[in-house]
Design goal:
With 478 residues, the chain is α/β, with parallel strands linked by helices. Helix content is 36%, strand content 23%. The longest helix has 18 residues.
Length: 478
């Protein structure tokens, strides 16, 4: 099965899309990677969903990626004697370590790390920013605030801290257990929520030991400030616009989205754009014009993937949402301005032989109008280098490692095929040409360009280019 677009689609599974039949429908509609939200999924449900996805994968014969999204720390206020309280802008309001029910003057904040870290002048955003407080003083056990805007607070509402760097890691105890369970289930990606600093990735890497790709969700100002360091230690990024839009002014989010996307592209790391992309399709069979434009902007920017959340997990039209995203992306990539935009945003290759070969393969393929670029990869690095170039021609990625093919399902433009490693150069050419022919990327007489590493089977040793003809029946030749 060949997609008609190069950007990938992530679809979140949930109550309306957890059965194997619907998972199959979503894949056929265009989903390339499935997201399991560990905020809502038990370990048992997660294992069941992984098994169902793998059944669909085996039936359709295509590698499918699975991403387990860790919940991250959930910071919430305590409870109120009357379930809620009414406040007035300008009044004083206290958050403290007293577990007694709150009222219109104070409430319990069961997070000592916040009480000890917030400084005068810091903002505290309650209930996704509907209530904004500003700290006036803090003694480590209580924070005295002024109400800046908003008039209501109720039980267990979330707390966001855009100005405060908390001295705690991104992994909670629940996250650690979820991570171990996800690794045991052999998911392909782990999404780490509420990353603040590069050090937040260290514990995940220690537990994962290379068994899974690590995707950092950028949803805090602190992460944006240290973006370059976080990119270096991450395998992929997600622009999590929901929480980012709470903790930063909404008007800044589009620019930050572009900044993150371009930085990830320069680094050759996949980047996913997420949150409210087709939000209206939770309850409507068609999106708004603004949503169509939003998805199109992400595709024009060269994002590796766009993501559906509640639209596919809990909405009334999950299959239609995936089909709509697929159609938007395919149409954008057919637009006459799309190739020139990809070219204008392309970065120079890194000073390595493998990067230069990938850049040369793209230039040769476009100059000679070849049918496809074909890369052999064991670790996935060569495939990502090819995707970084954003070529106009299709990329076929051949790997003997099924886990690598699944992980690369998130990357721009990669059509992944699991196949044995080449024995010698003749076998490499024959195998590449026959797969290009079989998968519909070329016909007899067409030419392809092949990149590989010699000696064969050596990870990270891409050092060879070969142009080959597809012969009769898909056989390869000079």
């Amino acid at each position: 099965m060949r997609r008609s677009r190069k950007v990938k689609i992530l679809a979140t599974l949930g109550p309306v899309s957890s059965e194997e039949e619907m998972i199959r429908k979503l894949y056929l509609a265009g989903a390339d990677v499935f997201r399991i939200n560990m905020s809502h999924a038990s370990h048992e449900l997660m294992r069941t969903l992984v098994a169902r996805i793998r059944n669909v994968e085996a039936e359709l014969g295509r590698p499918i990626g699975i991403l387990a999204d860790l919940q991250g720390p959930k910071l919430r206020v305590g409870t109120f004697a009357d379930k809620s309280a009414t406040l007035k802008p300008g009044q004083e309001f206290v958050l403290d370590d007293n577990p007694e029910p709150g009222d219109a003057t104070r409430v319990h904040l069961p997070h000592p790390e916040i009480l000890q870290s917030v400084q005068p002048g810091h903002r505290l955003l309650i209930d996704d920013g509907k209530l904004q407080l500003k700290a006036q003083k803090s003694d480590g056990r209580s924070i005295t605030c002024t109400v800046v805007s908003g008039t209501r607070i109720s039980d267990k509402k979330g707390v966001s801290l855009p100005d405060t760097d908390l001295p705690v890691g991104a992994l909670t105890e629940k996250d650690r257990m979820d991570l171990v369970a996800a690794l045991d289930a052999k998911v392909d990606w782990i999404a780490l929520s509420f990353v603040q600093r590069p050090e937040d990735l260290a514990e995940v890497r220690k537990i994962a030991r290379g068994g899974v790709g690590i995707l950092s969700k950028i949803e805090k100002p602190q992460a944006v400030a240290r973006l370059a360091e976080i990119i270096e230690l991450s395998d992929a990024l997600m622009v999590a616009r929901g929480d980012l839009g709470v903790e930063m002014p909404l008007e800044m989010v589009p620019g930050i989205q572009k900044q993150i996307t371009r930085a990830a592209r320069r680094a050759g790391k996949p980047v996913v754009i997420a949150t409210q992309m087709l939000e209206s399709m939770i309850a409507a069979p068609v999106p708004t014009r603004a949503e169509v434009s939003d998805v199109a902007t992400a595709v024009f920017e060269g994002a590796d993937a766009v993501m559906l959340s509640a639209e596919s997990a809990a909405g009334e039209y999950p299959e239609e949402a995936v089909k709509t995203m697929d159609k938007i992306a395919a149409q954008v990539e057919c637009d006459p301005t799309f190739p020139s935009i990809m070219t204008a945003q392309r970065s120079d290759p890194e000073a390595t032989g493998a990067d230069v070969i990938s850049a040369a393969a793209r230039q040769i393929a476009e100059t000679l109008h070849l049918s496809a670029i074909i890369t052999y990869t064991s670790s996935g690095t060569t495939g990502l280098r090819a995707a970084r170039e954003r070529p106009n021609v299709p990329i076929i990625t051949l790997s003997p490692v099924v886990e690598t093919a699944r992980r690369l399902a998130i990357a721009w433009g990669l059509h992944c095929v699991v196949t044995g490693d080449a024995i010698d150069e003749d076998d490499m050419v024959h195998r590449a040409c026959s797969i290009a022919y079989r998968e519909g990327f070329g016909k007899a007489g067409d030419r392809v360009i092949i990149t590989a590493g010699v000696p064969f089977g050596t990870p990270g040793a891409t050092n060879m280019l070969r142009i080959a003809y597809i012969g009769a029946g898909g056989k390869g030749g000079l």
